[in-house]
Specification:
Chain lengths: 189, 189
DNA sequence: GTCTATAGGATGATAGAC
DNA sequence: GTCTATCATCCTATAGAC
């Protein structure tokens, strides 16, 4: 029974616009115009432009944090956990493809507590990912070579998935997961 | 005998600011302030903000185009060519790390002919990369699997190299090249 | 090559009517 | 929940003095 509030609608429209031209280039008038109302009317539902950005970014960041915590608490091999992380990124990309552009490119325009919350979640996520790879090397599930380069390579690919998904059109989720796991993990085993 | 003109100085300062907060968020006053002059003085050297952005992005895009043309005209194996492309990205990243942020995130703010020129170069670059991978699969130098996913994975990593390089601090060029080639190509051979 | 002054318009946000 | 009207500020860019 999920009713879409007017605020949700604003955030969704804004995310689509932010993806194309970025937070700073989009005006409150742009967002309002896309909804066929006037800019002043937006303020009946949100406190300002900053709240929209925080809503877009922090919700997805929270999903990544929750997903990561689930994965690392599992009783399974490192490779299986990495596989689950790849699938986590794909699932979130399909469900929030507009928001990921803001998360990647506009997070620095968050202010105050919003900015701190985001940076903390992102750093923690990266640390967990790094630790996972290091453990994988220790237990010989991953070839002992360049852990930092492996981390960077996998994360770069996963973080820009939304660009590719947007461009290549809708692909079958399960095929996509299988292919990504194959290409990203075959080289490091 | 390369003298740095006042214009070059403006472009360089702007690129550093654009990297941190994006083209749209940076004002002419910000750029001028960073140079300890007034915004109006900038217009004695450049025609406007747009020219600065075009200067930053198109110079690097041209370097990628030139580099790609050299690589594909070589008489060597596909894997050797891919290796050279990885080294090309690393060399350009080290020489123009500030410009790469604008190239990745602010190219859509180019206007008119500048925008067309950029899109043409980028598409051609991608097509060449794609063709190289397909040929590699045909001649059995690359494992016949998911050419599109391989292309995306390698390109994503190379295109975000500047983020990593900025964060990890200065690394030895040759070590970096060796590690990147190893991690990016081991999985597809 | 830089300055002051300013044009001309856009921007985020508020007040108050309906 | 949306509107009109408006404020105070900021923006790119130009004109003309030094």
């Amino acid at each position: 029974m999920k009713t879409i509030s007017r605020k949700d609608e604003i955030v969704k429209v804004a995310a689509t616009l932010f993806r194309k031209r970025g937070y700073s280039a989009i005006t409150m008038r742009d967002i309002a115009s896309e909804m066929d109302i006037k800019a002043a009317s937006l303020y009946n539902h949100i406190s300002g432009k900053q709240e929209i950005l925080a809503d877009i970014i922090l919700e997805v960041a929270q999903e990544f944090t929750t997903g990561m915590n689930q994965v690392i608490s599992q009783q399974s091999s490192t490779l299986k956990k990495l596989e689950n992380l790849i699938e986590l990124h794909i699932d979130i990309t399909l469900n929030h493809s507009e928001a990921l552009a803001s998360l990647n490119n506009d997070w620095m325009h968050l202010e105050g507590d919003n900015l701190n919350a985001f940076i903390n979640m992102r750093d923690e996520y990266e640390d967990n990912f790094r630790e996972l790879i290091k453990i994988g090397i220790e237990v010989n599930e991953i070839r002992s070579a360049h852990p930092e380069v492996i981390l960077f390579s996998i994360l770069s690919t996963l973080r820009t998935l939304h660009l590719w998904y947007e461009k290549r059109g809708k692909l079958d989720v399960n095929v996509l997961k299988k292919d990504m796991v194959s290409v990203l993990l075959k080289g490091i085993m």
